[in-house]
Amino acid sequence: MLRTGKTTVFQRASLRRAAVILLIIAVFLSMFLLFIQMSQESLIQSLTQLNNEFVEQVDTISGTLLEIIHNAAMQMFYSRSLAKLRTLDSVSNAERIAGMRDLGSWVSSSTFLSSALIYNAHTDTMYTSGGAHVPNAGQTYADHSTYDLMVSRARHGFTGPVKRESAEGEIYSFLFFEPNVPNSGALLLNVRAPWFENQLLGLSSGHNSVVLNSQGEVLAANEGLLSGAVQVWPELSTRLEDGEAHGIILDPRGNSGWMYAQLRNSGLIYLRSFDTSELLPGLARVRNFALGLLLAVSSVLVIGALYTVLVLYPPVQAVREALHKLGSSHGDMAVVMDRLVESRMEQQLADEVARLLQGEELGLLEYPASLILLNCSDPKSVRSALAKITPLPAIVAAAPIGCAALISRASEQQVLDLCLALSDVLSCRCLYGTPKESAAELSRCHASLQELWQMRFLYAGQAVLSEKLAASFSQPVELADKDVSALLSALRSGSLDEARAAWKEIFEQIRTAKFTDFRFFLRSILQDLGAMQSELGLDPFTETSQVLEGLEDAAQLHRLLDGIFQQIVDRQQERRRSSLELLAAKVDDRIAAGYGDVSLSAHGIADEMGMNPVYLSRLYKEATGVSIVDAIKKVRIDRAKQLLRATDASVKDIAEQVGFANDKYFFVVFKELCGTTPKEYRGSCQQ
To answer: What confidence score (pLDDT) does residue 114 get?
Structure first.
């Protein structure tokens, strides 16, 4: 059971006196409730006694009524002449006349029968007390409802009553047959409705009564009770379905009600209305006494209010005056004071919970207890949600990440269900621990959940996190230098894909590290990246210490680093392009200056620049798209074209001037690049 702990509220004398007054008021209220309970118990006891007498009377007399009908039916059912009509495969004319005469005599001599019918299942023949003889009744008998009722079978020796409309008027039909004898025929007695209903109401003569069948249809009712019976039927049917065959139904105010009883032999339901003031005139005196007691208690409350105004209010007024001097308006003072008190109480509770989660046993709660952390900043909304979700005892207080909730006597599954419901209702993330048996265990659980909260970005989109996930962060993790070196090397070489792959491997290594280690590794990597950015003339990332603050998704971290990688790679590629362009310009300058030298070659230019010929050729081609050899050819042919246009020198002389030792090779190269021979080119230029 939860306890609030020690308090100093009653240290002031004025508050102690107020507590005594409230205690006295509570005693008087308890006495008042006791008198009310006594009056209600007296009413219930009296009604129960009356209802028992009513049930016994109804059962006895209704049994007698049905016995009268049943005895008459049995005498007719087993009379010799009627048994022949009912059972024989072949009935002689004399037997038929005798049987039908006896059937009519039974009805005419009865005070309650309207008609009677016999059905022979062997011959499908219907015999009526009115003298009708209907062979092949299934096809020729006009009253199909009567025929269907008579050919039906049941588990008991008779069924009824069934209220029906007939040519004779309203009747109640009782069907008799032998259930265990196939094709034994049936006897149907139709009882006059007025007689039967008068007999039903006569069971409770002198009282306000209603008789219903099992479907709630009114069979008989004293005047003015029909609407009341209809209104009470829904609750009555519910009680009957629950097996309460008799009892009392009181109206909400308790001034009137109904006694009811269901007959065992017929299923009929009897209702009798009653007025409690007529049944228990002494109850009014008890209530008057209770009212007087209530007035006395009210007087005490008035005295308590005066005491509050005269004794307790002055300190409150002093606080209000102090607030007024500080600038608060009179309209805001009550709100401000309420907020101050509420804030102070919340702070005290938060302090006590914080001490508990540090391992100090304060007696605040009952074990086993489970800890739930929520990133919701309003403890009141958490309390409200918990009150609607579960009856389990709970303490809710403000915590560093939002709110902490301590739940007593809950299983692990119940705590998980609570977290799922709270996360849905409050739209927040929820961390929970397994049930603990001490404050020390709760303290360790709190540390694990805080670690889990700091690493929550690993579980983006997961609203509920279990303490068990924190176990993955308990093992020490070391980050190899070669992995960081691989990342930096990929960036220096301008390979973005390799850099991304290297970071992926690093992240998979450090994701199981404790938060402090994870933060250390990340800061170290960001510092290395910052140094590289500075070397490249870029502005380094300056928010290294805040990069994990409020991080909810690891994808945000990946996007941040990918942006830095992209920036570094772009700058590296830009610098490489500049370097290649400068190198290509030097080679072009050397070609332009020495194209006339027959010995000019890519190998010679590489030697002059102190570089490997193959490497220089690869860099030059990367920068310009052509090889050094092709570049030399192009410069020589371009100069030759100028000489062919501007001079009359021979082709051989021009070839020697532009660096070709062999004029035949000059012809080959010229035609390869220009599509014509030198002579053809000169001729086309002179036209």
So the answer is: 86
